[in-house]
Every structure is written in structure tokens, then in C-alpha cells.
């Protein structure tokens, strides 16, 4: 299965190992990513000038891919700061503060609500909604920002996205790759998603509690909007009547967004755009109401604050995102060269090669499919390689004589947990940015729970085959 690996594949794999090594050592990976892009471009083109240009082009490609996320995060931060400056935030969080009494409950409430919203509308708009409404409450009751980000990641980009039972984008891709009915993959995935979700969230919660107790994670009562307050927009408090009005209006508008998503079947980028547009309108209304004379200027200042914050957060991520996009669909666009005709992208080729050299048994089959899911998830989308995981699961199931749906579901869960937004730093940017935490630190904190979850889930899958 797949194609013969070329020197480009091996060099790319070498740089992946180096990047992972630097992440483990908590070192910056930008130089290694840039070097990797340059070396691979030089091997592919044989031109020094094309390789230099390829580094810049890869950055442009990555920014284009990330721009919708950058904008929606920046806008949410702008709106959040206006809520803080006017005192609306205090009124909004008061009812939730009465219900959420401590950090433990905050973790699980954020997680469960994130799961529910993500199940129907995917995680990106869910992150925006959680950040606007519940994050300030969680921080006030002592949940560290990193804890809120972990909850959003694992429940939204992990549990909800890996099952994808309502929208069914993931199971359709894997089912098509395996030649199975979507319903069979969904049914087989239920126990695996439950096991993976329970292990990852409970492990993450226990590690979080341990570090809070040790004082490693002191609760900092601030939001992303606080972090962007440095531009000096002067605080202006609204009258109580206006604060109460907006405290009701804002949740109503977001509820209308959710209703519109359901009625018009808006998903992914379309749902995120709706939330972003609503946030802009809220920002305009607040700024113009709070300061009649300087309202227009305040809108611009808030937007600048948000955009500065957004690009500050995304800046370190662009080089590593560019490198891993190179391993997916961006190879030709970035460096102007072609891979062999049979190639499905560098990352997917590596996953196929792994499957081709592994012996056949239930244990090896499960381990290989999970490994392929992890490898193909390294491109940061979570979805690009799950068709390949389904195809490989189908091959192993024929050799084994059973377990096609279970193996397919296992590959789906592994790929989406790694690439869909819990491990790869640029894939989990939305939650990291909304919570004002380092995406690389968030990835490191998710790493142990996800590894343990994958091991346990793979073992369970072996028994189910």
C-alpha cells in the first residue's frame, strides 16, 4: 500500500522527530521548522533561490489557513475587553457565579457545555461562546486559565469531534475509506469515544488538581481581554440600566446564533463567522453606548487591541504550522514542486508505509491503525488522514477476519485527538487564545492524558475486534 518513500519523506520525518524533541525540552521550534522547510524545498527543487522563496511562501500559506481563526479570536478579545471596561461582564457572570462555586465544578461545567455545543456545531464556535460567557466565571472561582483551556480542548476537539455523531463528517470520511456504512463506524466508535473521553478528562483533571495543590498553577483572575488592555483604551462604566440591558442582550444574541446554526445547518467556518459577526455588532453597540463622543475611536482601539493580541498569540505558531502544512496539501503551493503521482501527501505516505511493514494480528492491527491515526494527525487538521486510516483498517480487518468497524473507529479517534485540536499547537490555538495561555504549554499539558487515553483505548479496541 502507498508509494516508496523518497529522501523528502525521510528528511521530513527527521525534522518531525527534532520538533517533538524540542517541544519536550520546552524549547522554541521556529528555527527547526524554518530549516526543515528550506531543506525540503532545496531537495525538491534543487534551487537555492526557490528554497529561500519557499520559506516565505510557506508562511503566507499558513497565515491564509489560520486567518479566519486569528480574526475570530481577535474580535472575541476586542468584545471581551469592552465588556470588562463597561462593567457588563460583572453583571453577566453574576448568575453563573452563584451556580459554579469552585474550580472543580467550573472544569466539568465548561467541559460538558463545550461538548454539547461542539456536538451540534463543531468546536470553533463553541470555544468563542465559552470564552465570552463562562471563562470569566471559571477564572473568578479559581480555575486556572490553562485548566479552562484543557477542558475546552478535551471535551470539544477531543470527545465531540472524534465522535462527530450529529454532523457525521468524521465517520463518513473513515467509513468511505474503509468501504463501510457510516452507521457501523458510528456504532463501533461509541465505546472507544467513551473510554478515550473518560480517561483523558479524568487524567487531565487529576493532574490539574495536583499542580494547583503544589502551587504550580496559581489561579490568575484575568481573561484574554485583560492581556490585551495595554493599548490604553480608557475605561468607561455604563449606567446600571445599560449594563443590565446588555447583560441580557448578549446571551440572547448568542442563543439566536445557536438557533440559526441549527435552523440553517451552519457548521465549521460558517458557524464561526456568525459568532464573529455577532461579536463585532456587540462591540459597536457597547462602544457607541458607553461613549457618545469617542465611540467611533473606541471601536478602532478595541479592534486594534484584539488584533495585536491575536497576532501576538499566533506569531510563534506560524512557522510550525507552515512546516506541517508542507506535509499535507500545501506542498506544491508552498515550494512549487510536485511529489510522486501516487503520493497522498508526505504525512499520509509515512502512515501508509508504517502499515505496510507491520505484521498481521489483532494487536498489531490495532496498534498500527492507531499509529497511522496519530501520524496523519500531525498535519493539524485531524481530518486529512482519516480516510487513509479507514483504508488501512479495512486491509487489516480482511487479514484478521474481523473488526473492520472497530479498527476504523480507532483510527478516527486517534487522528482527531492528535490533529483535531488537543496535541498539535496550531490546531488548539482557539482555546489557547481565548484563555490567554501558551498554545505549546497547553499541548504539553494535554500530551500525557491523550497518550494514556490512546493506550487504554487501543487495548479496549483489541478486545472488541
UniProtKB/TrEMBL annotation:
<feature type="transmembrane region" description="Helical">
    <location>
        <begin position="447"/>
        <end position="464"/>
    </location>
</feature>
<feature type="transmembrane region" description="Helical">
    <location>
        <begin position="244"/>
        <end position="264"/>
    </location>
</feature>
<protein>
    <submittedName>
        <fullName>Membrane protein</fullName>
    </submittedName>
</protein>
<feature type="transmembrane region" description="Helical">
    <location>
        <begin position="6"/>
        <end position="24"/>
    </location>
</feature>
<feature type="transmembrane region" description="Helical">
    <location>
        <begin position="188"/>
        <end position="208"/>
    </location>
</feature>
<keyword id="KW-0812">Transmembrane</keyword>
<feature type="transmembrane region" description="Helical">
    <location>
        <begin position="270"/>
        <end position="290"/>
    </location>
</feature>
<feature type="transmembrane region" description="Helical">
    <location>
        <begin position="105"/>
        <end position="122"/>
    </location>
</feature>
<feature type="transmembrane region" description="Helical">
    <location>
        <begin position="66"/>
        <end position="84"/>
    </location>
</feature>
<feature type="transmembrane region" description="Helical">
    <location>
        <begin position="31"/>
        <end position="60"/>
    </location>
</feature>
<feature type="transmembrane region" description="Helical">
    <location>
        <begin position="414"/>
        <end position="435"/>
    </location>
</feature>
<keyword id="KW-0472">Membrane</keyword>
<feature type="transmembrane region" description="Helical">
    <location>
        <begin position="302"/>
        <end position="326"/>
    </location>
</feature>
<keyword id="KW-1133">Transmembrane helix</keyword>
